[in-house]
């Protein structure tokens, strides 16, 4: 993330995660959804981090901190229509960027290397590559980032920070491992 660095300086690797990957209790939940989907953490990711001795920074959950639980599953446009939600995401993203800046600019030795930011596939807030939108009467997956990710990327760019962005798919949890492994080579 920082250019012209001395590769001989020891570095500590970290990854930046969407909140619910380490704490599934913040995912949307309401009566009828199996409670097991909201308990614990994503073991596939944790095993990878432990195996490779990688640290973690957990970002806040925009939806839980705004709506709490129980809350319904919403599309991106429904979150866009919630008064104050985009501003809430903006505030959280700014605060995350301040903390990432501290890692990068205050971590002189050992240097802190941010390997990647990991979002959540299809999330209206935390998706990296595609979100669910209502288009007319249909619900479609469209190539857009989530509202919080849009703000995070914008503020990172403004501060001269860059990182790889990956995303976790709760429907295909093993897929992330290939992407994570590729970061180490
Ligand atoms: S994907 Fe983002 S907004 Fe949704 S539960 Fe996870 S951290 Fe919260």
Write up this protein.
The protein has 185 residues and is α/β, with parallel strands linked by helices. The chain has one domain (11-182). Helix content is 34%, strand content 19%. It has helices spanning 43-52, 62-67, 76-80, 85-106, 147-158, 175-182; strands spanning 11-17, 55-58, 111-120, 131-135, 138-142, 164-168. The chain has a four-stranded parallel sheet, with helices on both faces. Strands 4-5 form a two-stranded antiparallel sheet. Helix 4 packs across helix 5. The longest helix has 22 residues, at 85-106. Bound molecules: iron/sulfur cluster (SF4). Iron/sulfur cluster binds at residues 18-20, 26-27, 61-64, 120, 123, 125-126.
SSE map:
Elements: E1 11-17, H1 43-52, E2 55-58, H2 62-67, H3 76-80, H4 85-106, E3 111-120, E4 131-135, E5 138-142, H5 147-158, E6 164-168, H6 175-182
Parallel strand pairs: 1-2, 1-3, 3-6
Antiparallel strand pairs: 4-5
Helix pairs in contact: 4-5
Residues 18-20, 26-27, 61-64, 120, 123, 125-126 line the site of iron/sulfur cluster.
> What is the radius of gyration?
17 Å
Q: Give the distinct bound molecules.
A: iron/sulfur cluster
* Low-pLDDT sequence parts: none
Number of discrete domains: 1
Average predicted local confidence, pLDDT: 94
Strand order of the largest sheet: 2-1-3-6
Distance between the termini: 16 Å
Mass-distribution shape: globular
Q: Largest sheet, if any?
A: 4 strands, parallel
